[in-house]
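A common beginner's mistake is to predict each chain separately and then try to dock the pieces by hand. The better habit, illustrated here, is to supply every component at once so that their relative placement is modeled jointly.
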Amino acid sequence: MIEINDLRLSFGSNEVLKGIDLSIEKGQVTVIIGPSGSGKTTLLRCINLLEIPTEGMLRIGDSALSFREGNKPGRGDILAFRRKTGMVFQSYNLFPHMTALQNVMEAQVIVQKKSRAEAKERSMELLGKVGLAGKADSYPHQLSGGQQQRVGIARAMGIGPELLLFDEPTSALDPELVGEVLKVIKELAVEGMTMAIVTHEMKFASQVADRIVFMDEGIIMEQGSPNEVLNHPAQERTRQFLSLLSEPV
Amino acid sequence: MNDRTAHLTDIFIDSFVPLLMAGIKFTIPLTIISFILGFVLAFLTALARLSRWSILQRVAWFYVWIIRGTPLLVQLFIIFYGLPSIGVVIDAFTAAVIGFSISVGAYGSEIMRAAIQSIAKGQWEAAYSVGMTRSQALRRIVLPQAARVSLPPLANSFISLLKDTSLAATVTLTELFQKGQQITAVVYEPLLLYCEVALIYLIFSTVLSALQHQLEHRFDRYAAR
Ligand SMILES: Nc1ncnc2c1ncn2[C@@H]1O[C@H](COP(=O)(O)OP(=O)(O)O)[C@@H](O)[C@H]1O
Ligand SMILES: [Mg+2]
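With all components supplied together, the output reads:
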């Protein structure tokens, strides 16, 4: 349902994504792992079109965009495509001048032109789902990191995306707050939300992932079921990476 | 009380109302009207400088360059004494409003541009990620935050403007400072009169500062600081 074909992106002469091929089935959770600088964030940003790929093809459902050197898709196409995906940021990026409820409502009212009543009802439902119905009227600075990130998830869900992207959603959190965010993501997985998640939480990855993708230096080195990739990696680089992660500190 | 002190007290009291009236009739309206027009001009200029169209960017840059690089006094003289020689005659009050608005527009646009650029890139990206267009992101997400950032420096320039309006005396406007000069010419007590003028400016600016604090307090609702 989501297809990425030979996706490439360069920053100047630095080719960061060197031809990514990946497909994600509806309802699947794909966890992306890999060393720092391997292009995981950039891949998510390309799918969300925060970066415009230099080359390749993206398809979500029945809409597809092709990229070629010197040929950017039109602004309208980019907007329409972007609205099919939601993004959860490492540093939350909540709107600080809006309450939790307003954060979730905003795009539904401004972008989707829902009535305020309808948007509010849906947003309260989403805040309930992430366990924050009681914090609807709090401003971001009044919330803990874990709470802010859960609002971030509700906000991304608000526009009804077909695919939800998470970029290290717990790595800015104090350890004791990680669990509450992972729990929300697991619940979404159970409900059948299609998700692509960059994370270093390996236990969580093995529990929630249908597929694990290992990226290194701008390519996908290896992918497969959690058991295949985590317990029986085929590539030496994957083994190295996993052994570094499990090394006691 | 000796005679000298009584004399000065009389002058002070007799001058107070005329000075205050000059302030209320000219200085205050000049400040407020110029600031409102200048604010609008500043906003449009800031948007132009941040726009995608390079022609707009360049026009805005040119305007700011000229106004910031030349003295306000000279600009007022060009408008009031210069333009009539090409047939454009403007009365003193209008000339002053034009001069001050253009000045506020240039300095204010730099304040607003800096405020908009100070908003973290992540805010734009979060807005884009939920599907907003550039103008929706600007209007709903960035500008409200930038407004709070730019409030203190804009309030500063408002108070500066109040004081700068004394330059309008040079284009024959009988505002607060000019009134002080006129009374001084008659009673010849420059120290007393100019201190009195200063006092009235101080009263006006203190009231404005109090208003500024009220406004900032409102914005503080969402800020942790
Ligand atoms: N905006 C950018 N401009 C230039 N280089 C960038 C930019 N963003 C990322 N990069 C580079 O792209 C590479 C991949 O970065 P990133 O996708 O953030 O990796 P990861 O998320 O896997 O740690 C890095 O070498 C980084 O320096
Ligand atoms: Mg990253």
